[in-house]
Amino acid sequence: MIKERDYLWDNIKAFLITTVVVGHVLPALNLTSIVSRSVTYLIFSFHMPAFVFVSGYFAKNYCKNGVVRGEKVAVLAGYYIVAQVLFLLLYQVINPISITLFNPLRGLWYLLAMVIYYLMVPVFEKLPWYITIPIFIVLGLFIGVEKYAGTFFAISRTFAFAPFFFAGYYTRKDLIDKFRSFRLHSLVGGILILVAFGIMLLTKITPYRYYVPISTFWAKSTYSGLKQSNLGGMFLRAEGYVFAVLIIIGLIMLFSNKKNIFSYIGKNSLQIYVLHMPIIILMKSSTIFDFAKAESELHAVILIFAGIALTLLLSINIFSYPFKWIQMGVNKLYSLNKSET
Hints:
This protein has helices spanning 7-28, 34-58, 70-94, 109-124, 129-142, 155-170, 173-179, 185-205, 230-254, 261-267, 269-285, 297-314, 321-340; strands at residues 63-64, 67-68. By secondary structure, it is mainly alpha-helical. It has one domain (7-330). The chain starts with 6 loop residues before the first helix and ends with a helix. 38% of the residues are buried.
């Protein structure tokens, strides 16, 4: 019997992957308009914490009772290795750089982080959530102090976003149902998101604002690397955690659990995530978008729609074949190795 998909999560993933693509298109072209900066700022404040949360929620299917489905981890590792090697080759052609296999390029840190999270689950799953999640909140805050925690093995980002993975892992369906049990849950969810966004924007435009660089949300460098004090950096990251939680709850309440066009996009979110990155690299190195003036609000809007169109294009099933081939190859190697042992 085939288990029916939970379209709520497909719809949420469709929205999130669209924000990922748009959030990478705008900065790649160095747009400086108010629309571009505001949209990019808001997107980066929540899209990866939310994606990591969703991944943690579904990790229950692959990590249970102290056992990890090794083939799932192996496939993710396979995706990462193949994509990292191909990206390295692409960079050598366009703009040669010096980097190792275990320094993830662009958004590939997410795949490597997922491998690490899956391997960590058996260690922590027997602990109650009220112990595990605070542990990772503390680690997530303090990893920004450690000067040796950077892009190698995506250590900084892995620990910075770990609270969201384990929050997703410990979240049960009955809690999701409670959030959605209100008659006007969609309206409440939308208001919650708007309030969170409004507060974030107000901290940037009121006379009493404090400057929070967008790189704060990337979590790939130390606080000192962001020109922040350790205490100030931890405060900003903790504040970011709160905003991201509010938006995640809002998304859960807002989106429909019915099948629609967004469900199709969300189902293919992984291929969109990986494949849009080389396209962004090529966009940045080409002259295709030279028409875009940095300060133009209209051009920012045009490129937002270009990002949405790219998301739709990459969701087509034909682009899933490379991932299916990698999965089949890794599964064969995994099965062969397992049979020999």
